[in-house]
Amino acid sequence: MNYKRFFPPAAIRPFVLFFWEFEGDFSAAAPYSHAVSASVHSKLAFQFKGQMRSGHTGRQEPLFKSGFQCQNKACYQISAQHSVGIFGVYLQPLAVPLLFNIPAETLTDYNVEVSDLLGPGGRELEEKIMLCTNAAERIDTISRFIAQRISDVPHGHRGVAAAVQQIISMQGLADIGALTRQQFISQRQFERRFKTLTGFSPKMFSRIVRFEACIAKAAAASSLTSLSVASGYYDQSHMIRDFIEFSGGSPKAYFAEDHTLLLG
Predict the structure, then answer these.
(1) What is the CATH number of the domain that holds 196?
(2) Phi and psi at residue 179, in whole multiples of 5°?
(3) Which among 42, 117, 178, 200 could disulfide-bond with 205, CB atoms 3.0 to 4.6 Å apart, if both were Cys?
(4) Domain identity same for 161 and 142
C-alpha cells in the first residue's frame, strides 16, 4: 500500500484539512478492509483506479466512483479485492454548507455521488480529476474548484460557527449550555442553526469530536485508563461505550486495525 498526505494552499485551509492519495494492490486472497468510524468531517473522494465496496459485512455494495462520504455517526466498512487508487479531500466540519450551500443535516450518514450533489458542475469536476495524471495535478484542480466556491458564513450563523470552532478547539469538552447563552438566541434556534452547519446536535457533535480527539491521543497514552482520563471521559467504561457506538467495537479492537486509509 502507498499512502501520501498533502497540505492545502493557505487560501482554502479553512475548508480543507488535507488531501490524500492511496494506492494498493489487493485480491480475494489478500483483501483490504477498513472500518469507517463516526466523524464530524466529510470527505470528497475520487477513485481513479478500481472501485471499493461499502456497507456492512455481507451487505456491501460498490462505493461511488467519485463522491462525498458525508459526516457520520454510524460506522460501516469499506473493502477491496483488486487494485485501487483514490484521491481524497478531507474537509473541515463547516465546509459542505459553506462551499455548496447545502444544509449539513440533509447529508449526515450518506455517501453521495458528486454529480448527484453538485449536478453538472460535479460531473465536470469528476472528468477533470480523472484526466489528471498525478497528485499535483489533482490538488491544483480541486483547489481551484474550492477557491471559486468560498463564501462567508451567513450573518445569522456566525455566532454558531464560532461555537462550533470552540467545541473543536476544546476537543469536545466545551460547556454547551454556556455556548448557547453566549448566542442570545433560544436553545431551539441554536440547535437548529448548529445542525444546519454541522449535521449534528451540539451534544452529538461534541461527543464525536471527543471520540476523534481520543483516537489522536492514543499513541501517546500508556493505557486505556490514562487515555480515557486525557480525553475527558468519566472513566474507561464511558470511553468504551463511545468506541462501541462510533466504531463498532472496543478500543482494543479499533487500534488493532489498519487505519492507513483515512476515509473515516
Answers:
(1) 1.10.10.60
(2) -65, -40
(3) 200
(4) no
